[in-house]
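Narrative progress, year one. The postdoctoral researcher (J.K.) led the effort to move from monomer predictions toward full complexes, under supervision of the PI. The following entry was the first complex the group processed end to end, covering 763 residues in total.
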Amino acid sequence: MIKKICLLLLSLIGIISLFAPWIVPNDPYLIDTTKRFFNPSWQYPLGTDHLGRCIFSRILIGMRYSVGSALIIQLISSGFSLAIATIVTFRQGITKKIFIRLWDILLSFPIIILAFALISVFGPGLRSVIIALVFAQTIYYSRIFHNAMISLSEMNYIKAARVSGTTGIKLLKTHFIPHILPTLYTLLSLDLGKVILEIAGFSFIGLGVQAPIPEWGMMIDEGKQYMRQYPALIIYPGISIFMIVLLLHQVGVKKHAN
Amino acid sequence: MQTDILLNIENLCINIGQEKVLKNICLQAKRGRILGIIGESGSGKSTLCRAIMQQLPPSFQQTDGDILFNEYPLTKESTDIGTAITSILQNPMMAFDTIQTIEGHFFETIKAKYKMKPIQMRQLAERYLEKVQLYDTHRILKSYPFELSGGMLQRIMIALALISKPQLIIADEPTTALDMINQHNIVTLLKTLQSQEQLTILLITHDLGVIAALADDVAVIHNGEIVECADVYTCFDSPKHAYTKQLLEARL
Amino acid sequence: MNILDVKAINKTYTKQRWFKKNVHPILKNVTFSLAPGECIAIIGKSGSGKSTLANIMLGIESATSGEMIFREKTLTKSYYKQIRKEIQGVFQNSYASLNPLQKVEDILKEPLRNFDLPFNKSKLLYLLDIVGLEPSLLQHYPGELSGGQQQRLAIARAIATEPSILILDEVTSNLDMVLQKKILQLLQHLQQTQGLSLLFITHDIKVARFVASRILIMNEGEIIDQFSKYQQPCHSLATQLFRAVLPSHPSKR
C-alpha cells in the first residue's frame, strides 16, 4: 500500500520535472533585487531568495538537475557495470586478476575522495560531477554484479543450459540477466537517493553545479549565509531532498522485500 | 517401574493451522527392540521424531493424543529428554557446533548428567569413542568437527547419544547423508551396540534396506498415518497395506 | 562399432600461487567404451571424479589430455558443436538444474530451438507424454512441480533432441524408493524404445546392478575395475563396496 503511494508520488514528481520549464510560475533565473526575501504569496508560492528569484520555481527546475542527473548517473553506471561484470566473469586469466585488484584498490578509497580526484581533472561543473559519480558507482556495482554472476554460473541450470546448446549472448539473456535484474532494481532505487545527496553535497561545497543553476545543493549553499534571518532559503531545498530520498527508500526497500 | 513398552504414542494428532500433518498415530516402542519407522519424504516421519523430542516449531499444534515415556506423559519440560531419551540426527556434518572441539561437545553432554572432573570426563569420552570403534581418541578429541569425515562424525554422535546411558535412542535417518560403505558400517555398529547394551532404538528412515538390516518391529507411515505395524518378518513376508506392498516392490 | 570411446582422459587442476605450482590430478587415464544401446554404470563415492568425467563428456569442461571418439571420429571442439545434440545429460538435483524463472514450455523449447529442431506444441506434448507428465504442466514453473515431476521434466528436456547418448549424473540419489524405481524404469523404457545408450553415474550399487549391463568402479580419478553385471569384482575396493550393500530381507542380515 505504502509502496504504491510512494510510486505514485515519484511518478508525479517525474512528470512535473519533465514539464517543469512550462509549469513554473516565474522565471527561476530572473534576478530582481527589489523583491528580496518576500514571504510566500500567490505570486511567489514559497517566497523569494536573496536575489529576488522565486524559490518555488527554482525548486521545480532544480528537480530536473538533482533527480535527473542522479537518474542518468544510475542508468549509465548500471549499463557499464553489467558490461564490465560480464567481461570479467567470462574471461579467464589476466583480465580477471587485473580487475579484481583494481576493484580492491579503488574501493578502498571513499567514493568522495575518488570523485574529488576526478573533478580536479575535469574542473567543477555538473558534467564533471556526473562523470565522477558514474565512475565511482560503476566500480561499486560492477563488483557486486560480478559476484552475483559468479555464484549464478555455479548453478546447475546454467550447466544444463550449456548442455542444451545455449551459449554466449543467449545464455546471458535467458539465464543470467533475469536473475540479476532484481539486484539491479534494488541497487538502482536505493542508491538513487544516495546519489542525489552526493550531487547536492558537491554543489554545496562548490565543486559541482555552478551558479545560477538551481540545483538543490547549490541552493542550500547559497542560502546558508542567510540561515539566521531567512531559513526558508535552506529549508525548502532541504525538505525537497529529504522527501525524495525518503520516497525512493520506501520504493527500493519494499521492492527488495518482494 | 519396568514395563515392556518404553514409549507409547496414543492417538497423536498434529496440525499446522488447518492442515493435518499427523493423524491418530499409535505406536509402541518395546524395551530392548529396534522399532523402524519407514516412510517417504513428506510422510510426517520427521514431524513425528520432533514431536517425541518435544522440538516442534511453534506453528505445529498438537491437537490430540499423548506421548508416554515409561507411562508418564512427555512435555517440553521433561528432564528425560537429553538424558533418558537421546537422539542421533540425519546430517552429521551439520549437527555439530563448528567452533567447539569434539572434547567440548563431550564435556557439554557429560556435564548435563554427571558431575565429574575434566580428567574423568576425558576418560569417559575416550571409553565411549572406543565403543564406537574410533581408536585414535587423542586426536579426535582435539579436532574440530569440520576436520573429520561424515562417517566419523556419525560415530561420534552415536557415542554422545550413548554417554548418558539413555533408555531410548531416537535415530532420525542416521545413514541418509552417508555413502554406501559408511552406511554399512554405521548399521553394523548400531546392531552391535544394540545387542551389547540392550538398547531400545526408534529408527526413522526411508530406506527399506536399513529396516531389513536392523529393525525388529516396523511401522509404515504414509501421508501422516501409520498404515502398517508389525514385526519385521511379518511386514516383509505378508504385508497388508497397499502402500507397504508398493514399498516392497520398489526394492531394486 | 562403439558409439563412444573414451581414451586416456586426464584432468588436472593447477593452482599457481606466485612461484609454487600445485597440481591436483582429478582424472587419471580414464579409458572405457560405450556400445550403441548399451547401459553402463560408473560407481564411485563423492570425490572420485565421476562428476568431472560427466562434465567432460557433456562438453562443459575440457580434459587436460586424452581424447574422446564419437562414432569413430575424434571429438574436437568443432566436431562437438555439430554433434552436441547427440550427447545430453540429466543432473542430480533436478530443481537446481531447472531455471526457476522459465516456464516448462520454454525449458523444453530451449534445446529444440538451439539445434533448429521443430518446437511446435505437438512435439512438446509428445515429450511430456513419454515421461509421464500431464499436458497442463506446460504453463507452470519448475517451483510448482513436485520432485518427481521435476526429474521427469529434466529427462524430457534431455531427450528432446533425440540424442544417442544420455549421461545421468546421480539422478535418483535424492529420491525416495518408490520414485527412484519409477524413474529407473522410465529410463530403461526409454533406452529400449529410443535406442539410447545410457551412462549411469551413481554411488549406489543396487541402482547400478538394476539398470546397467556393465559396471565400472572409479576411485580417486581412476577406473579400478570393470565387469559385466553377472560377474564379480576383482579389485578389493570394489569388493568392499559390494559387501556394503544393505540386505533386501531381514533373513539376509
